[in-house]
Amino acid sequence: MTIRIDRRQFLMGSSALVAAGAAGVMPAWAQGANMRLTFWGGQDRADRTYGVTDLYTAANGGSIEGEFLAWNDYWPKLATQTAGGNAPDLIQMDYRYIVEYAQRNAIASLDEFVGGALKLDDFDADQLEGGKVNGQLYGISLGANTVATLINTAAFEEADIAVPTSDWTYDDILATGEAFAAANVRNGMKMMTDSSGTEPMLDNWLRQKGLALYTAEGELGFGADEMIEWFTMWNSFRDAGVIVSPEDQALDTGPLETTMLVSGKAAMMPSNSNQLVGYQALLPDRLDMVGYPRLAPGVGGGHYRKPSMFFSVAGSSANKEAAAEFLSFFINDPDAGKILGVERGVPCAAAVRDAVAPTLDAQNQIALHFVANLGDLLGPLPPPPPAAAGEIDISLLRTLSQEVAFGGRSAEDAGVYFVNEAAAILDRAS
To answer: 3 CB contacts (<8 Å, ≥6 apart)?
Structure first.
């Protein structure tokens, strides 16, 4: 689904701008650049984003035309746009794709604007590093976040089962899931989604084993034995009836509204800390979050604080400096920060964090507290995924997980095939 909203144009809407013009000092943005902005997300993110574009254009003139899509629809369309030289000026970019887009010059290096149009003096250093490819800055983090498991607390209360904590384990998926299923709440709601095709969860599981999804050299950091074990584990959950059926899971096509959490099929699902806000906007039940499950009690280190997403500037943009100025406003302006909250993650500019924290409601406070207090769950930030990571995630892992779920492949066959095919994809991409 594509939703396009043309944002209204505000012409010279600020007294400060008028005064600057009268004094003969006319900044670059006073020429009123007309730009396009694209991002993935739901309506809540769109409302917040457009609130900031309105704030910016009201003061600075010009127009910013925004478009947002569901995650699954976003990347195919962006690939088509960049291939045709028609990419929007401002592109929301993900950690797993930034290397690929930078190496293809589909997004521009921002180094020439740092200290000028783009102010980063107050920005978290680790979040800046996450946006660099080969030492050059290609993306500005829009917030720090981490993976998290979202929980419908009301469903657990109805089942008379204690809400899981960040100490829960993969064994608890089976044990607690069986108790949850026996309670038969909400017409057979399951405790958890089928997350066998969720790349961040696989990554987290591997990290707890001391392995990696990808090495710094851009190769797989694990082998067929691990993938067989992964698919076998999820088969056991499926056979025990503690996760949603393959037929239900297939209905999750990307938009938040189709997820098993929102549709009421599951009480828990893997997600990201910043997404609590968007999901809560769609559900009357109170949501909470905990970490991903541990391999065993006391085992941690699978999580890391990553840039939740970036804004990048298209390599084909004719408005690169104007785009950098807007980007600087988006991440540094306290009023913009209050509109955005922590929906995209914890703000990376210290002054914005200080301005935003007192304004947050209970759900946003949960997200902020979770990211700041990961404890022994926290491990180091991995290197950016290689250029072909997106293809491996979407075309391979998700497809194989469904084939295993529906009985089209065995766990053994899928595990071996995944590793061989992923290695071939990485080889072709290099």
So the answer is: 46, 67, 68, 69
- Which residue in the block uniquely carries the two structure tokens 């080969």? 134
Q: What is the DSSP letter of 300?
A: -
The angle subtended at Cα 252 by Cα 226 and Cα 272, nearest 5°, is 65
pTM above 0.90, yes or no: no
User: What CA–CA distance (Å, rounded) separates 345 from 332?
Assistant: 14
Q: Each residue of 312-325: pLDDT tens digit?
A: 999 999 999 999 99
Q: Nearest-CA neighbor of 38 among 6, 68, 75, 73?
A: 68
Distances (CA, A) of 259 to 68, 130, 267, 340: 18, 29, 11, 23
Q: What is the CATH number assigned to the segment(s) 2-145+306-372? A: 3.40.190.10
pLDDT at 239 over 50: yes
- Contact (Cβ atoms closer than 8 angstroms) between residue 193 and residue 249: yes
Q: Which DSSP symbol is given to 59?
A: H
Determine how many CB atoms are found less than 10 A away from the CB of residue 420.
11
Q: Domain locations in the chain? A: 2-145+306-372, 147-305+383-429
Classify residue 407 by its DSSP letter: T
- Where is 269: in which H helix or E strand? strand 266-272
Residues 82 and 51 sit within 8 Å (Cβ to Cβ) = no
56, 64 contact by CB (below 8 A): yes
At residue 232, what are phi and psi to the nearest 5 degrees? -65, -40
Helix, strand or coil for residue 402?
helix
3-state class (DSSP) for residue 149 = strand
pLDDT in tens, 201-211: 999 999 999 99
Cβ atoms of 141 and 125 closer than 8 Å: no
Mean pLDDT of 171-184: 97
Q: What is the tens place of the pLDDT at every residue in 122-175?
A: 999 889 999 999 999 999 999 999 999 999 999 999 999 999 999 999 999 999
Q: What's the full length of the chain, in residues? A: 430
* Fold classified for 147-305+383-429: D-Maltodextrin-Binding Protein; domain 2 (3.40.190)
**Residue 244 has which token pair?**
């949603």
Tell me the C-alpha distance between 325 and 119, whole Å: 9
CB-neighbour burial class of residue 372 (10 A; exposed 0-12, middle 13-18, buried 19+): exposed
Burial of 79 (C-beta count, 10 Å sphere; 0-12/13-18/19+): middle
